Amino acid sequence: MSKGLTTPVAKLSQCCLKKSKRSFPGLSSTRRGEIHMIIGPMFSGKSTALIQRVKEDEAAGLQAQMVNSSRDVRYSSFEVVSHGGATRPCHCIEKLWDIPILLGFEHFSRVDVLAIDEAQFFPDLASFCISAAEDHHKKVIVAGLSGDFRRKRFGQISDLIPIADSVLKLTSNCAMCDMTSGLFSLRTTSNWENQELIGGPDSYKPVCRSCYTSAWAEQTT
């Protein structure tokens, strides 16, 4: 197991590791682990892109499992729902190391692709993704915010960038000038104390650099 793995279910994950090395029908013994990232601001199409990746992998004959954070139940507690209306059944969980326990180790060992939405909310994101890819040889696709509303580090997303196979950064149209790419998530409410504030268009706007700096200056003076 990875040296950084110190989760309460580390012992159980070792059992899962032993099972994952067994040969199952349809599971290639030469499967290699991968970590792919889809990041960007609010409303940039991260969930839509994640769902599309899962569909492509399933069309290629891979078994996929999608998970979402139990903190984000704005639209559903059993589906990933994009702002554009795309949906996909999922398990909503608090910690990623709950996955092998929830699915059962036999089922977990058969999963080829793990798709993680709202990844910034998972406190064990880095340790789980590293172990899933390097110990269990799974393809892990992570979708999450590239930064918080202050343009600061959010959760463990940035910890995965140095070890990811690929990083796709999406943008949206700037909601203020509509002429340039929306790079950042601008919080539009009066709550500036908490980093986590789950919301939709009523709480956030994707904005370009120029509009962000102008709006930030107005809100902080």
TrEMBL record:
Enzyme class label: transferase
EC identifiers of the protein: 2.7.1.21
Keywords: ATP-binding, DNA synthesis, Kinase, Metal-binding, Nucleotide-binding, Transferase, Zinc
One Pfam family matching this protein: TK
Reaction(s) the record says it catalyses: thymidine + ATP = dTMP + ADP + H(+)
Residues where substrate binds: 204
Annotated GO MF terms: ATP binding; metal ion binding; thymidine kinase activity
Biological processes annotated in GO: DNA biosynthetic process; thymidine metabolic process
Enzyme active site: 118
Domain of life according to the entry: Eukaryota
Family: Belongs to the thymidine kinase family.
Protein name per its UniProtKB record: Thymidine kinase
